[in-house]
Design a protein that fits this description.
about 300 residues, Rossmann fold, 4-stranded antiparallel beta sheet, 10 helices, about 30% helix, about 30% strand
Amino acid sequence: MIKVIEINNLTKNYGKSRGIVDVSFDVMEGEIYGFIGPNGAGKSTTIRTLLSLIYPTSGSAKIFGLDCVKDAATIKKDIGYLPSEVFYYDGMKVKDLLNYSASFYNKDCSKRIKELTDIMELDVNKKIDDLSFGNKKKVGIVQGLLHEPKLIILDEPTSGLDPLMQQKFFQLLKEENEKGATILFSSHILSEVQRLCSKLAIIKEGKIIKIETMSSINDNNYKKFKVEAADEIGEDYFGIKGVTDLVIKGNEASFLYKGDINAVMQKVAGLKIVNISVIEPDLEEIFLHYYEKEA
C-alpha cells in the first residue's frame, strides 16, 4: 500500500511550553485514520507542522512522498484542511469566499460547490459576519472539500455542528473516502473516531502512546459483564485472572474482563442464570485505560 502521510520523530518545541516530541505514524492510501487525545495533547500542533503552517524543531514529515516543508506549495493543491477554528474576512459573502478559494485550483469547482452547499444547507448569499459559529464551520467544510482533494485533514471538525448536520457530515466523509480520499480525523470526541476510523494513534502530552487498529482495540480489550443468577453468588466466585472491578450483591455480579472469553463463560455456566449481558466497552473507556496505563 502507498503511504499518503509519513511522520518520523516529528518534534516541535515552544521553549518552556510543551509542543510535540518524536511523533511518528503513517497513514496509508484510502484509510480513515483517527488521531485522538484531549485538548492540549498536541493534535493541532502535529497537524499544523504537517501542513507547514509552523516548522518542526526536528524530525520529518512527508505527504504523497514529498517533503512537507520543501514541497509545501505542491502538496497543498491536493489537500483539504479544516482547522479546529475558522476565521474569515467578515465583509465577504459566502459565495464570494468559496469562489475565491476555488480560484486557487486549476479546475472548475462550481458544480461541487453547489452540491456541498446544498448538503450542508448553507445560504451562500449571506455575509460571513452574519453567520453563526456552526454555519461558519459549514463554510470551512465546503471550502476544504470543494476541489475534491486526495487527502482530507480534519481538526476537531464537528464543533459547532448540530447532531443532524453531524450525521450529514459523516456521510459526506464516507462518500469522499469511497471515492478514494484518504482522511486524517483528529478529535477528542472518541465516539466519532470509533464510528469512522479503521486505525488510530493516541497522543498524550505531546507523545504518541499507542497506535492500534480499531478492530484490535475492540477485540482485545475489556468486556463488561452483568450477571443475574437464581441463587446468591459467592464473593470469590469470579475471582479468576482477567476479572477487575468485581461487584457482587446477592445474586447479581458485575465486572470487567480481559482475556480468553471461554474462561469466564465456564464460570458463568456454573450458575443458574436468570439474565446476563456482555457489553463492548466504548472508546472512551479504552482511551482512559491507555492513559492510566501510561501515566
